[in-house]
Amino acid sequence: MENTSPTHHRIESRFHTLFQRDYAVHAPDMRRLYENAKRDQWNAAVDVDWSAPVDLDAGVFADGLIDGYGSPLWDRLDSAARRRLNLEFSCWRLSQFLHGEEGAMLACSQLVDMVPANDAKFFQSTQVLDEARHTEVLSRYLNEKCGGRIYPIADNLRILFDHLLGEGKWFIKTVGLQLIAETFAVGMFRMLAETAQDPLLRSICQRIVADESRHMGFSVLGLPDVIRELDGAEMRELEQFTIEACRLVMRGMFAREAFEAAGFSTERIAEIKRIRAEAARSNDYVYFRALFKREMYTQVTGNLKKVGLMTPWIAGQLRSLGFDPEADGRARNPDPV
Known about the structure:
By secondary structure, the protein is an all-alpha fold. It is about 65% helix and about 0% strand.
């Protein structure tokens, strides 16, 4: 892997391309997913009202999503400092979504080559377009409405996509992308569709959620048969990757660069990080508990069961991440980093 600039890096990828010339429909449910994807396409250039003004002083995200909200430190901030922090934190978080959509576009372009049947190849071709559109719409929002504030990719997101893009087995790539990362995306974009203070961002997130829900469906339809046929070594490899992907996604990301851009001192940033960790371990982190955790925990648990990956080993590892998969997916948040 070679780093060439702050805005891009190279990943060595090795995989087999399957030139499939059997054009019969072998997976009707997958073909219906493809038909739904064609039906539900939208154009980010014309179907989004880019003429709508965005009042950055009114806030982009809901303040309750900002690390440190409701703490004594937050109470000490004046209105100008809160507005600046809302803008920088929102742009930092949207930047991570943007980088994730770009990574998903690249991974899905690989999956078009790798998946074994044309029913799946057809659907993956639509997901490439979906992810390109999401990358387009988020980058345009950040550039045109938020003054070009695009932050670098967070470490755990980069680690996850470096692994996904270098992975040579399509089913491992699918577990990491559609089963885990897309579940995270559905929860986060749905949360923003419900809580964002900017109406334009809410409308964008509503459109993205509909696409991401289809992407989760691909893993549920495409993985069970191949997982049933894995030998012991392959299953252990998939289990270990599944837990590592869950750990990278669930551990959270700390927006240090956003706090620095908002003028916070090193001491204040350390205080915010401590407050964030305490809030994540309590039952008082209302937005996360009510709007995101319900999606992430229950969907990951349910989908792992649907595809045949809720093995005893994975169940035990998930418990160590903070919830009981044998119950209903509810538990404490994993400690952030």
